[in-house]
Amino acid sequence: MQQYSILVLHGPNLNLLGKREPNIYGSVTLDEINLLLSEEAKNLDVTVTCVQSNHEGILIDTIHQAWGLHQGIIINAGAYTHTSVAIRDALSAVKIPTVEVHLSNIYQRETFRHHSYIAPVAIGQISGFGVGSYRLGLLAIVEYLRKLENNH
To answer: First and final CA of the chain: distance in angstroms?
Structure first.
């Protein structure tokens, strides 16, 4: 069985987790999320590379650089979820299976957050489970990749 490399992208303002609106996003920091993902990745015999940026272009460049390097992407694009056609197009261009995750349930929040440009090019979307959304996203992408491998 192939060991998969998964890119985890955290978008704008996620570097403030633990301080920013804990009533919505919880008290866990981004470093703690990354540690949890690294530990879960070891259990699944995969590797994760975590990148956070507040800049759309850096996120896009990182997606482009993932081509041929990573077999899956987990992305929490933050507010770019609802605004960035460019991130959507980058994900579509590289054709790397992607799971979109959100800490909060975006459909229980402001109406403008109900639309995702990423969802149509992702294999799935997980939201509303706090830090668990990331863990579920990792489990989902690994299961998807293993099924894909077994079907070939």
So the answer is: 12
Q: What is the pLDDT of residue 112?
A: 64
Q: Which of 25, 80, 117, 134 is catalytic?
A: 25
- CA gap 126, 112 in Å, rounded: 18
Mean pLDDT, residues 93-113 taken together: 86
The verdict on whether residue 16 carries a ligand-binding annotation is no
Is 76 flagged in the annotation as binding? Answer: yes
Return the domain boundaries, the chain: 5-150
Mean pLDDT of 4-31: 89
Q: Class assignment of domain 5-150?
A: alpha beta
Q: Strand pairing of 5-10 and 72-76?
A: parallel
pTM of the model: 0.93
Q: For residues 81 and 70, give the distance between their C-alpha atoms in angstroms, rounded to a whole number.
A: 21
Q: Which run of H or of E encompasses 114?
A: none
Is 80 catalytic? The answer is: no
85-89, Cβ contacts within 8 angstroms, sequence gap of 24 or more: 85/117, 86/56, 86/60, 87/56, 87/59, 87/60, 87/63, 87/117, 87/118, 88/117, 88/118, 88/120, 88/121
